[in-house]
Structure formats: C-alpha cells, structure tokens
Amino acid sequence: MPWPSSTCWRDRPTGDRRPATGDRRQATGDRRQKERVIPSERQRVEESPSSRKRDSVPPFRYSRFPIPDSRPLLLGAHTSIAGGTHEAPPRANAIGATAMQIFTKMANRWAERECEAPELEAFSAAVAATDLRALNAHDSYLINLASPDKVLRARSIESFVCELRRCEALGLGALVSHPGNFMDDRASGLARNADAIVEALARVPGKARLLLETTAGSGTALGATFEELAAIIARVPARTRRRVGVCIDTAHIFAAGYDIARDYDAVIARFDERIGLDRLGAMHLNDSKAPLGSRRDRHELIGEGAIGELAFRRIMTDERLTEVPKVIETPKLDDPVKTDRRMLGRLRRFAAG
C-alpha cells in the first residue's frame, strides 16, 4: 500500500512553546427545567438558520485497516507513543482496547516531523496484531486556530495541516481538536476557527475527519456550548462539512454547565437538536473533579467524581451511541495499565447492564 507522507517539518520553526491558552422531568414545557442543562447566556451564540441546517453525514470511518470485528464495544484510552507510534497499539492491546487515541508528535512543542515509510509499515503491522478498530489522533495543545494574532494563527494553521497529514499517512480515521481561544471577540474567533479549518482540509484532501472537541469554557476558550460548535460547522462549506464532526468530552460539558449527571436525556436531546447525533464521531469519557458549571477542566476516574456512575451507565447502554468510539483520558495513578484496565472493565460492566 502506498503511504502519503508529510513534509511539514521542512517548513516549521521550533522553539516557541507558548501554550494556547436531576433526573429529567417529563416534557412539561417548564422553561426553567430546560435551562438547568444549558450554559450561561454569555457563552451562547445566537442561532441562525444556517446553524440549524441538517445535512447528510456519511458514517465516520475510524481506520483504513481491515480489522476483524471481534468485540462489540469501541472502547479504549489515550495511549502513549513513547518509543514510536508503533509502540502504541501493543499498549492499547494490553488494556483490552478496541479504540485508541494518540498524539502523533510531542503535543507541547511546535517542532513538526514527517512520517517515513518504515514508521508507517511498523505502525500498520502493530495495529494488525491487535483488536483495534477505531483510531484517532489528538492535535497539539499549542494550536490556536481562533487566535487574532496573525503570526500565531498562521503558525497554528501550518501545524494543524501537518497534524492532518500525519493522520492520513498513519491511516487514522479522525483528528480531535480544541476550537481554540478567541482572545478578542467571540464571533470573530468562531469565524477565524472555521476559516482555518476550511483552509486546512482543502490542503489535506483525504478521508481523515476533524472532530471538534467540546471544552469546559474557561477564559476565552471556544466550544463550551453546542451552539458554538454548530456555528463553526455551519460556516464550513457543504462540500467540506462532511469531514467535520464533534467529540464530546463528558468532563468538559459537565464543567461547561450541561448536567449529564441528572439530566442526561435533555443534554443528548440538546446536542441532537443543535448539532445532530450523526456528527458525533467520538467521546472522551472522563469523570470530573470540578463541580457542574465550574468551567474547570479536571478529569477524574470513572464514577468517582462529580458526575458519578449513572451518566456513564446511560452512555454505555444508549443504543444511539453504540458505534461511537469512546476513549478515556482519566488519571493513570501509579500503574497506568492496571488503572486503565480497571476503568475499561468498569465501563464494560455498565454496558452489560
């Protein structure tokens, strides 16, 4: 199989390491009840006809690799690539994963790299030796496509393009990305983010898709409301929009004010109404150390934080989410393998009912 390769490393400077910055009541028409699960007004975007438009979205492709469908759940963890990307699949296999998320480079550095043929062959062989079916990457923490700073935004776009190229080269189905920080004006930030996405996807044609990750909403971070994500997607032309979806992080949406602990049905209904469940390409399953609406991103072990077990039981038994890959990013404690296996085992028990 011929593998495409990235040449981003030739164009990229190095050295700059600045970080980018209750039970649901039955339908009664009680507006106050609905507002329990909706973040504060200051973070909402006025809904427009374009943001409500629902277009056809093909099923998300998770990997180019022909892997036997031996397990029903697409469940795994963010996995280290220490020693090379080919080391990640065996680590995922050690925890019984069928889904895997990785970084394709050091996430806190601007330096880019090219995926050479030996790496791609080793990675492909390593994946083939596992039960992995859903593969995705998470982009660098430094990228801020919404920045008003022309230099930082240009650098972010170039890095983002490189991320997409590595995903294509490695055969990963999706790239998860935070929408960024607007810094000046929220609406302008949303527009800058969307326009950068359009440019990057045009420069990297292929099958890998972009999944915008929900955020906790601290500071000037975008993506804390479903309306904001819908607004970004709506600004992407229809021909490109089919490659754009969403990744829900449970800890993030809880911190942003969506009460999945007590109003799971209302939150999912809100997402479906504003964005559409057909655009949900992945989920990050994390409990939260921070309380509801705190806007603080603090992950906790499944069922041991402010969200609690019930929401995760609902997620794991929700038939609408069966084919959505679910990846944990929970604390690793002293023994990462043991801890991740315990968390995945807990989620599988939830799925079993």
Polypeptide structure, described:
- The chain has 353 residues and is an alpha/beta fold.
- It has a single domain (60-352), classed as Alpha-Beta Barrel (TIM Barrel).
- Helices cover 35% and strands 12% of the residues.
- It contains twelve helices and ten strands.
- The chain has helices at 31-35, 49-52, 88-94, 117-128, 150-170, 186-203, 226-235, 238-241, 250-256, 264-274, 309-317, 336-352; strands spanning 75-78, 99-102, 134-138, 174-177, 209-213, 244-249, 280-285, 287-288, 299-300, 326-328.
- The strands form two sheets. An eight-stranded parallel barrel has the order 1-2-3-4-5-6-7-10, surrounded by four helices.
- Strand 2 (99-102), helix 4 and strand 3 (134-138) form a beta-alpha-beta unit.
- Helix 5 (150-170) crosses helix 6 and helix 11 crosses helix 12.
- The longest helix has 21 residues, at 150-170.
- The N and C termini lie far apart (42 Å).
- The model is unreliable at 1-7, 9-35 and 41-53 (pLDDT under 50).
